[in-house]
Write a structure and sequence with these properties.
The protein is built from 7 helices and 14 strands. The protein is an alpha/beta fold. It has one domain: Nitrilase/N-carbamoyl-D-aminoacid amidohydrolase, CATH 3.60.110. It has a 6-stranded mixed sheet. A 6-stranded mixed sheet has the order 6-7-8-9-12-13, with helices on one face. Strand 4 and strand 5 form a beta hairpin. The longest helix has 15 residues.
């Protein structure tokens, strides 16, 4: 199978201003110098991590999803990130998988950050999703999901890459880094985590530190603390060779999710 080229896009978000954020990301994406397969934006990339969901929610045929589809088609790459979506009167923090052709896929954030009251505004997703790209199986997660290893568990190597899009504050960034590496090592999969930088409208600072991590837990890319786009190539042969040589996944505990 082919290697997978992934662009991590780390940015300062304009507070609750979808149009300004779409314009910012369009400029940042345009600066990518080589062709890529997958472009990853942060959590709530059009608004910042806000509890004003009712006022800012869009639909699946709204301007942000349409923009993502247009950009994916223009670039010939899958474009992902989460936005606020309302569907049948329910509001979700929804990860969008925008393909160059066809309808977008999606995953709704499972674990809602109660310390910010997210669970009072948004509804939790119930289903894991896995997308396929160039033969790679990619599983999406959103921010707080990172803290829950059972939800991320790679049962029988069901996925090859885990994506975590986030608005993870600076004061807890050591956990962000440690958990991204842990999820990669325990699941024997590549992990890509894309965070934001800057200070949001609630005066909460974010230090970025978006990472790409290999299946052993080694850091392949670290975006530091500034706005930046970095492309990393995920090596398929290296992943398969490691899983064959060190098949720890075969000894994983069996379990069932009750809810």
């Amino acid at each position: 199978m082919q290697n997978l080229k992934v662009a991590l896009v780390q940015a300062d978000l304009v507070w609750q201003n979808p149009q300004a954020n779409r314009q910012k990301f369009e400029s940042m994406i345009a600066a990518i110098e080589s062709s890529v397969d997958l472009i990853v934006l942060p959590e709530m990339f059009t608004t910042g991590f806000t509890m004003e969901g009712a006022a800012l929610a869009e639909t699946m045929d709204g301007p942000s999803v349409l923009w993502m589809q247009k950009m994916a088609q223009r670039l010939g790459a899958v474009l992902v990130g989460s936005i606020i979506v309302q569907e049948k009167g329910t509001i979700f923090n929804r990860f969008i998988w925008a393909r160059p052709q066809g309808k977008p896929g999606w995953y709704d954030k499972r674990h809602l950050f109660r310390m910010a009251g997210e669970h009072k505004v948004y509804s939790a997703g119930r289903d894991l999703r896995t997308f396929t790209l160039k033969g790679w199986r990619v599983r999406p997660f959103v921010c707080y999901d990172l803290r829950f290893p059972v939800w991320s568990r790679n049962v029988n190597l069901a996925y090859d890459v885990a994506l975590y899009v986030a608005n993870w504050p600076q004061r807890r960034v050591s956990a962000w880094r440690s958990l991204l590496q842990a999820r990669a090592a325990e699941n024997q999969a590549y992990v890509v985590g894309v965070n934001r930088v800057g200070t949001d409208g609630l005066n909460i600072p974010y230090s970025g530190e978006s990472l790409a991590v290999d299946a052993v837990g080694n850091i392949l890319a670290d975006l530091g603390h500034t706005e930046k786009v970095v492309t990393v190539e995920l090596d398929r042969e290296a992943l398969e060779r490691y899983r064959e040589k060190f098949p720890a996944w075969k000894d994983a505990d069996r379990f069932a999710l009750l809810d």
